[in-house]
Design a protein that fits this description.
Layout lengths: L1 H18 L5 E2 L2 E3 L10 E7 L3 E3 L3 E10 L6 E6 L4 E5 L3 E2 L4 E10 L8 E6 L5 E4 L5 E3 L7 E6 L1 E11 L4 E11 L13 E9 L4 E10 L4 E8 L4 E8 L4 H4 L11 H24 L2 H18 L3 E5 L4 E3 L8 E4 L4 E9 L2 E5 L5 E5 L7
Helix pairs in contact: 3-4
């Protein structure tokens, strides 16, 4: 009896608060398969929820959850909703009295209805539903060079252009994006593009973006929508490529250089000389020298190991994170393995182009 009285007192207090303007609190809509139990009470405050967002924007929804049954974990579900995509969720709360969580959504339509938040103690079948307030969605009228990015800020940390083949250049961008839909970044006019690497979280995201452009493109232009200033900001990047230097990588192959050929020739001459000296003097020292020279020579004559490279793999000039990518593999392809260094493999393609690929770009079977 005391528990039921306590429940009605708290419910009345919450209703009075809402009537006086406390609209940020959504109280319980309780559904139960069992009789009421006093320690199952929950209520939620929407501490941060935007009143207006833009179509395509990723936005946070922050909640404060107060639980009277503080020793029981809480399970969270989202029910219904339309015009939004869940980006980051929270499904479980450890035991405690007060919890603060933030979920992230993306507006996919101008008619948005956030889902109902459903909470349930793990040891109970009772659940409590909380309906968030409505959000206004504004559709943008973007310019032709819009990159699909809506963010608090965009910074170009580094960029580089290189030759991809006879007709295309490859542009590599190293970007920092603050509170934006980084995964959707795209430069209009690119023949082909992809995000090679993405790090960080919604607040600060670092991406490596690769795009192919016709080789007559001397400047790339794109814009993004700044959520702080509510306007489009433009970037212009010059594309300058010395094709005779980057179009082939055979100069990076130590086996192909003239100096390597000279070393092989000297080694063969040394073997012949030691053989002649051994024939005349019959000293075992010459036999040892001959064997060592043959072992050195064999390292240049053994056929290289074949490896399979995935379609869409990226070849880099050097085995480093900051290295310039210079081509994609258009199809699954067999290559010669030349060397390994940490997470990179040096390969030679059938067209004799040489570069480094990441270990994960090898075929699985």
């Amino acid at each position: 009896m005391l528990g039921r009285t306590l429940f009605f007192i708290i419910t009345a207090a919450a209703a009075l608060y809402a009537a006086r303007g406390g609209s940020d609190i959504s109280f319980i809509e309780k559904t139960s398969a069992n009789r009421f139990v006093e320690e199952k009470l929950l209520y939620v405050t929407f501490q941060h929820i935007p009143e207006k967002i833009y179509l395509g924007e990723i936005f946070p929804v922050s909640l404060k959850i107060t639980a009277l049954h503080r020793h029981d974990p809480i399970l969270i579900e989202l029910k219904g909703g339309k015009g939004v995509k869940l980006i980051k969720s929270v499904k479980y709360l450890a035991p405690g009295s007060i919890h603060r969580i933030t979920l992230y959504f993306q507006a996919t339509d101008t008619n948005v209805q956030l889902p109902t938040f459903r909470f349930r103690y793990r040891k109970s079948r009772d659940y409590y539903d909380f309906k968030p307030p409505e959000i206004k969605v504004v559709a943008l009228n973007p310019p032709a060079d819009f990159s699909k990015l809506l963010a608090k800020n965009l910074t170009i940390l580094n960029y580089q252009a290189s030759a991809y083949d006879e007709k295309k250049n490859l542009l590599s961008l190293h970007l920092k994006i603050e509170r934006g839909n980084a995964k959707e970044f795209h430069i209009p006019g690119a023949l082909r593009d992809q995000i090679d690497k993405i790090e960080g979280d919604y607040n600060d995201t670092i991406i490596d973006y690769l795009a192919l452009f016709p080789n007559f493109t001397d400047q790339v232009q794109f814009s993004y929508f700044n959520l702080d200033t509510n306007r489009y900001e433009k970037f212009r990047i010059p594309v300058m490529v010395r094709r005779n230097r980057l179009s082939t990588q055979t100069d990076l192959d130590p086996r192909a250089g003239e100096f390597t050929k000279f070393k092989i020739g000297v080694t063969i001459g040394f073997i012949l000389l030691c053989t002649l000296l051994w024939y005349r003097r019959h000293k075992w020292l010459y036999v040892i020298l001959i064997l060592l020279a043959i072992a050195y020579l064999v390292t240049y004559l053994i056929p290289l190991k074949n490896v399979c490279i995935k379609k869409g793999a990226i070849l880099y000039l050097l085995p480093t994170a900051q290295s310039t990518p210079f081509m994609y593999t258009q199809n699954r392809i067999d290559a010669k393995e030349m060397d390994r260094k940490e997470k990179y493999i040096k390969i030679e393609l059938p067209n004799h182009r040489i570069g480094w690929v990441k270990n994960e770009d090898l075929c699985q079977n």
